[in-house]
Amino acid sequence: MNPIQLFDPASSTYTYVLFDADSREALIIDPVDAQLQRDLALLREYGLRLVLAVETHAHADHVTSAGLLVEHTGARTAAPEACGIRTAALQLHDGTELSFGRERLRALHTPGHTAGSMSYFWESGGHRHVFTGDTLLINGCGRTDFQSGSAEALYRSLTEVLFSLPDDTVVWPGHDYHGRQQSTIGAEKRSNARIAGKSREEFLALMAGLNLPRPQRIAEAVPANLRSGLRHDAEEAELFGARAAQGYAGDVSPRQAWRWMEEGSALMVDVRTDAEREWVGFVPGALGIAWKQWPGMAPNADFDRLLLAAATPGKKIVMLCRSGVRSVAAARRATELGLEAYNVLEGFEGDPDDQAQRGHRSGWRYHGLPWRQG
User: Fold this and answer.
1) How far apart are CA 343 and CA 248, in angstroms?
2) Which CATH architecture best describes the domain 234-344?
3) What is the DSSP letter of 162?
4) Arch. (CATH architecture) of 4-225
5) What is the distance between the alpha carbons of residues 266 and 245, in angstroms, rounded to a whole number?
6) Mind telling me the catalytic residues?
7) Which of 36, 157, 183, 208 is the most exposed place for a label (fewest CB within 10 A)?
């Protein structure tokens, strides 16, 4: 069984979805934020339950949707430990195995493009696959001139790690700029223009002379990707009351949302699951209408009806979830229903900290606003 290969034309990034046919558990490798809705639709179409969102490294040319996928699906994030993506729930090391159903994906530390870069080996149904990120490309390899890159480390990763895999292993790269989709280890060992037949010294000289332009989005992408792609800015919303947004009235800080609630001009709708509100805590006066529910984080078929029944003419709706992701989708839907809907930035628990724990960096509770538990 081959992976499902998806493409983002803006960054020429390949995203991969792997799944176990029996359990329907799935993982996704290198998702892109601009393709979030596409990927969620694919999961629904195939009847898959996403359990892991996996990174090959901290990307410099696009922003990951890993953190967003966690909010929408209940999955966990996984990233190479040496990349410093501390918001990832699973910190991966060489040899770490990731399970989805009966399938296993094995992490291979392949530094060079970045110090933490990893490839992932998958053997299923008698076929071998390796997902190489930016380490090994089709007839090429990743650059090494920024973001902890090392041409010497990349040479070892290519020749000693990836090229030690069986020749028939299918290579699934993180990018391709010429419409090519896959290769094999054998083909790259024989004909890859960057590495095939080259000595260490020849490879180092070639990489040193590339003189490539810096990725256009590096200043935005790398900081965002070190936080699993989660980018919330409550301070700006605090200053300006409501930050402009696409598809709904705007983003507001937790404090602004509470001020509106206190003055009676807004109704808060908590779109987390019933279990989250019960076990994690809730805001007094907020109405609970789940956007998605367990099992499987299935969409709530009664969301529209319950929301319209609760709405009051002339009163704003402020949507709250765990970290301000599901609430964006809910605010957009409320706007489609004709309501004035806002998203509460940071949500109830906020973004994960460096130990992948929530509640210590941002969010409703972090700001000391009223909440209760039980």
Assistant:
1) 8
2) 3-Layer(aba) Sandwich (3.40)
3) G
4) 4-Layer Sandwich (3.60)
5) 18
6) 57, 59, 61-62, 113, 134, 175
7) 208
